[in-house]
Write a structure and sequence with these properties.
Elements (H helix, E strand, L loop, with lengths): L2 H13 L2 H8 L3 H15 L4 E4 L2 E4 L1 H25 L6 E7 L3 H14 L4 E7 L2 H9 L5 E6 L4 H10 L2 E9 L2 E5 L12 H4 L4 E4 L22 E4 L2 H11 L2 E4 L5 H4 L3 E5 L6 E8 L6 H14 L2
Parallel strand pairs: 3-4, 3-5, 8-9
Antiparallel strand pairs: 1-2, 5-12, 6-12, 7-10, 7-11
Length: 300
């Protein structure tokens, strides 16, 4: 077993195909395929499942990949300290629902660990993709929420994918509205009072089940619905159409500006907001730093 073989396995898992991994690594596809097969033969396991539809990690492969990432992370630290003099390129990826505190934590991470070279990714994406990214180890961490409604379904998926949920905090339901919205100055609002206004939510693609929704009370029937893909569009529509969205209530004025405000929603129901990791992986130095930053921002 060589360090190069470990890096090849990681590259294939991240790329989702041998051909794409070979292209990224600037090696021939046969060389990459042979290196992985030789490693599988040496270990006596199948790291990847190969079908006509493509390639995916086996259960044994997921466990092995966790160890491979830990080894390459440690080698990277040694190279950075003694070979490159601290100037090596660092890599880190997180997938998250649309939370401002997740962005703020990412900013803190770059300020603390970003050097002349780094390759960091922040994916604000759909719930299913967050789970899949962490399960396939494309992202080290995924940020999402659970509640009484979605937890039975999502916990079943998390267990099946060998993922663990770590709660950061519990939030009461709120709505985001424009600061000029007729209900913006209220101490709290009801679902009935919100009925005349457009309801905005994040679209979940092919997995548009209520269980994957980013918004609590997703199964409530509303007369006016608008689905979007990104946070900037949602906030622009909140302002332009006097719309609203159901949320955790945490908002960053520096990041989102003064035009969006949070108002408590007069409904029973909590959101357990946290992050998921793969149970077979130990958090890297950057992963630990990012989760520490998350905790700082949600406890402000």
């Amino acid at each position: 077993m060589t360090l190069q073989q470990l890096r090849y396995v990681i590259a294939v898992s991240e790329a989702g195909s041998v051909s794409e991994a070979a292209r990224r690594l600037f090696v021939s596809q046969p060389s990459l395929t042979n290196a992985v097969k030789e490693l599988e033969k040496e270990l006596g396991i199948s790291i990847f499942i190969r079908t006509n539809k493509g390639i995916s990690l086996s259960k044994e492969g997921e466990i092995f990949l966790g160890y491979a990432r830990q080894i390459t992370e440690q080698v990277h630290l040694v190279e950075e300290r003694y070979v490159r003099g601290g100037a090596g390129k660092q890599q880190f990826c997180v997938s998250t629902q649309h939370y401002s505190f997740a962005v703020n934590a990412f900013v803190d991470l770059i300020k603390e660990y970003g050097r002349q070279e780094y390759d960091f990714s922040l994916r604000e994406t759909q719930t299913y993709e967050i789970i899949d990214d962490v399960a396939r180890m494309r992202s080290e961490i995924g940020v999402l929420y659970l509640n009484d409604f979605n937890a039975p379904a999502l916990n079943k998926i998390l267990r099946a994918e060998s993922l663990v949920f770590h709660e950061l905090f519990t939030a009461r339901p709120h709505v985001f509205v424009s600061s000029r919205h007729p209900l913006a100055g209220r101490e709290k609002v009801t679902m009935e009072e919100l009925k005349p206004y457009p309801y905005l939510s994040f679209e979940q693609g092919e997995h548009n089940s209520f269980y994957y929704s980013e918004e609590i009370f997703s199964s409530v029937n509303r007369p006016k619905n608008i689905r979007v893909r990104d946070r900037a569009t949602l906030f622009n529509l909140l302002i332009g159409l006097n719309g609203y969205t159901v949320c955790s209530g945490i908002i960053d004025n520096e990041l989102n500006g003064p035009d969006i405000v949070s108002v408590p929603l007069d409904e029973e129901g909590d959101m357990q907001i946290g992050f998921i990791t793969h149970k077979n992986c130990v958090l890297s130095r950057l992963g630990t730093a990012y989760t520490d930053a998350l905790k700082r921002h949600v406890n402000k």
